[in-house]
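One-letter codes give the sequence; the fold follows as tokens. Both lines appear below.
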Amino acid sequence: MPSTEMHSSSSKNGRLEARISNEQKRLFQRAAELQGSTLTDFVVSSLQSVATKVIQDYEVMALAGQDREIFVSALLKPTLPAGRLKKAVTRYKKIMD
């Protein structure tokens, strides 16, 4: 999983602005204080963590138990195409040559 470590200030040249309610700002500020960080550092760190998780959830396929065994077995011992699939592969190869 990618690191959520912050980059040095010299590499920070992007800007993000968001309009939030006073209640949200108080909530975020309180959370930042509890972690001993600034509001900006807290918000950026939180956004980076959530963004990393969202991307990982969409890009990583997690299988458990029998599903994992079936998938690995199919990768290690693939079956050869038969019937209509075999004919389609043959037609495809003729077209692509």
